[in-house]
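User: These chains co-purify. Model them together.
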Amino acid sequence: MRFFLLLLLIASLATFVFWGLPQWQTFQELRVQQLVLERIALNASEVVGVRDQLLGRYNAVLAEDKARLEAILPAKAAQETIMSLLQELALRHGLLFKRITIRETTQQNLLVANIQKKLYDELTIEIGVAGTYQSFQAFLASVEQNARLLEIETISFSAGEADSFEFSLQARTRFLSS
Amino acid sequence: MPQIPSFIPRRSLSSSGDSLKKSLPVGLLSIIGGGVVVFTLLFSASTFALRTFQEQQIEALRDRLAALIDELDLPTVRAMDTFDKKLALIASLLDEHTHTSKIFTFLSQTTLKDVRFSSFAFFAKERTVTLAAEARGYSALIKQINLFRAQPSIEHIDAGSVSLGPAGTVRTTITIKVAPSLLRL
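Assistant: Joint model of the two components:
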């Protein structure tokens, strides 16, 4: 009887040390995990609430406004669109469209230097047109007011014998990086 | 047969000890031992139950989180995020957008009748305009330079060497640095 009691005591202590205490430690760890998960769930609920608000505002943006934004900063380079646009503007203002070169610029832009991902790429456009000073002025104003943003970098021209000038213009435009 | 007196006990003495032990109630050691056994078993059983309950709770929380993530609709969130970045980018691009044609308006308003420019070169990065100027005499040229200098839209002006042209005109190269405000709407 005494031996049996001693054996039971040893077995109980062994159960306590090798099974009970690890269970308790696991329970404590799970409790911490539960608290973390509860916090995450709470934050996720708040995020869902904020998302709903933002979605309401996002859906409130008119389709035509989205189209204008797309025109300002398109998702594609669309060189052919730029080419036809500039040609059309030159013709509209009575200029002779003489040459155009469009190339993609790979340089890192400073504007987004602090943002990890580069958000846009650039195209450099060089064009040569001929016509009167007034026509060029009107053409330039149209280019600046165009929906697709074109930033003029350089302009140069010299007076010739007649009233016609040869204008050289370099500009750049951006499109969203894929 | 008569018993012979002897010092050697005829029965084992241990039997008298057993009878003493049996006479005692449950020993203190047994009580403590029993208590320890009960405590350890209860403790182990409760921690197991708690652990199981905790695991169920965590499982339920994980399910709730998964449902919340589904509800969040990550592709829509990504689309909104891209749209937001695009808006911020467009705002900064519009802020930077320059209107170079304003330079021509400015020059037509500030050029004297006795002066003409035969060439024009504009560099947006430096905000400089280089003009080949031809004036009807030195005084007209000086007036023109002074008129440019008086303009708040011009930050800096440089005039190159002056040379005589045909029919008494004077020629020079003028480089002006325009203020950023001149290029903005």
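Chain B has two domains: 11-97, 101-183.
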